[in-house]
Amino acid sequence: MTILTRRAALQVAAAAAAAGTIPEVLAQMPPTPSTAELADRPLFGATLRTLPNGLRVAHVEQRRAPVIAQYAYVAAGGGEDPPGLSGIAHYLEHMLFKGSRRVESGEFSRRVAREGGNDNAFTSRDVTGYFQHVEASRLGLVAMMESDRFASALIPESEMESERQVILEERSQRTGSSPRALFYEEFAAAMWGRQHWHGRPIIGWEEEIRAIRHADLMDFFRARYAPGNAVLVVAGAVSGEAFWDQIAEEWGQVPAGPAVPRDRAPPPAEIPVPRFVRNDPRLRGEATFLRSWQAPTQTAGATEHADALEVLRHLLGGGQGSRLHRALVEGGLALAVGASYDGDTASWGDFDIAATPRRDVAPERVEQAMMAEVKRLLDAGGPTEAEVARSIRQMSAGALLALDGLGAAPRMIGGALAIGMPLDSVEFWPRRLRAVTRDQVAAAAVAVLGQSPSASGWLLPEGVAAPAEVPA
To answer: What family classification does the UniProt entry report for this protein (predicted)?
Structure first.
């Protein structure tokens, strides 16, 4: 399952607002606070405490329905996989459903289902997360089961091979059978290096998944699944000291353990493969063009550019009205364009632009047009004041819409805390965004699009030659 970051949740919600697709029922609700009013108060009003064993716990009271969501995060994801053992964080996620001291193998999900709830887990590059949505009075049950899993997961060697086959099949279906997924995986390896933490697939390279031993899983579990290296977020219809007493009773029994520093290599000084082209005979649809720059985030590099890069991403490729959409989609060259950037990550990230050309348009025209837009932005000294204001307005609208989902607060807050960001980075995100200026966006564009190492790539049908690269 894919983790939903604060940026992704608000980006989707903002897109809905910009496209006028807010459900009619929301339009009929009482007026919501303005963006300015929202920026001056916390989004969720979370309370954060640390248990004696080192576990950080955030609590968000929400009374829209008599349900709760419990999310437990380990501050270790695919980026913490040891060299030669890519996929081990994801493999361990699977194995944690194989029982613990008080819960038999497979019984965790069955108990949640019997209570009318649902549960799942996910591994991202930065975290491994486990969650349950249940009726509010069942908090004690899921707190007991989840804390027991962290304290005494069995990870039985006898079930390891069958689960390995499940993971290999998952890799085959999600990546091996998809020309685009395979292209993006190979592009990342080309840009960052096959064994760089940013270049390895989260699910792992096939040969390395096959090489993971039981002792490797146990070592990773013992080193990383400690209260000091974890975050718990509970949102829903539960409040007061009764909540904290219940959490302390169950989670306080997990033996103390320290936080584990992330040891992530910096970006390569030179891109290993700056131009990557893949011709796939299975490709029957449109081609894909991708350009990616190394980029700082909230936690690494020139962190002062992170918020401005969020705005730059939106005005450059954030749907209808963005520069790339007007130039390529409305210009008849591409079926779709986009830009992506996530500042809420541990260590360095990337800033990407991508396009799906129309079938009757030569690839070189698309690449030339995209890079011309980047050059035009830089030559003009950055975007206009109106573009920046529009992007901030649309992105801020997403903050309002994000308040309604039960899982939004746990995912946003837990993901931020697990990578070392403060609670306020989520609670007062609209305030930070509103403070971004045109000059800051211009400076971020120069620092990344104008100066940072980059790579480009094409996914093309068999027999179609890639065009000459257009310099960044």
So the answer is: Belongs to the peptidase M16 family.
**Measured torsion, CA atoms of residues 456, 460, 463, 466, in degrees rounded to the nearest 10:** -20
Residue 151 lies in a domain: yes
Rounded to the nearest 5°, which phi and psi values hold at 420? 90, 10
Pairing of strands 118-123, 67-74: unpaired
DSSP class per residue in 389-438: HHHHHHHHHHHHHHTT-TTHHHHHHHHHHHTT--THHHHTHHHHHHT--H
**Residue 170 resides in a domain:** yes
CATH of the domain at 48: 3.30.830.10
Helix (H, G, I), strand (E, B) or coil at 172: helix
- Are residues 319 and 360 located together in one domain of the fold? yes
pLDDT values of the chain reduced to their tens digit, one per residue, 472 residues = 444 455 554 454 445 444 544 343 333 333 345 545 555 789 999 999 999 999 999 999 999 899 999 999 999 999 999 999 999 999 999 999 999 999 999 999 999 999 999 999 999 999 999 999 999 999 999 999 999 999 999 999 999 999 999 999 999 999 999 999 999 999 999 999 999 999 999 999 999 999 999 999 999 999 999 999 999 999 999 988 889 999 999 999 999 999 999 999 999 999 999 999 999 999 987 899 999 999 999 999 999 999 999 999 999 999 999 999 999 999 999 999 999 999 999 999 999 999 999 999 999 999 999 999 999 999 999 999 999 999 999 998 866 776 778 889 999 999 999 999 999 999 999 899 999 999 999 999 999 999 999 999 999 999 999 999 999 8
Q: Is residue 379 part of a domain?
A: yes
455 three-state secondary structure:
strand
Which amino acid does the sequence have at 388? Answer: V
Q: Which helix (H) or strand (E) holds 148?
A: helix 139-152
Q: Are residues 128 and 67 in the same domain?
A: yes
- The pTM of the full predicted model, rounded to 2 decimals, is 0.91
Taking a C-beta distance cutoff of 8 angstroms, is the pair 237, 69 a contact? no
Q: Is residue 415 part of a domain?
A: no
Containing H/E element for 219?
helix 214-224
CB 363 within 8 A of CB 470: no
Domain boundary among 219, 251, 283: 251
List the domain range (segments joined by +) for residue 326: 275-405+423-461
CB 264 within 8 A of CB 79: yes
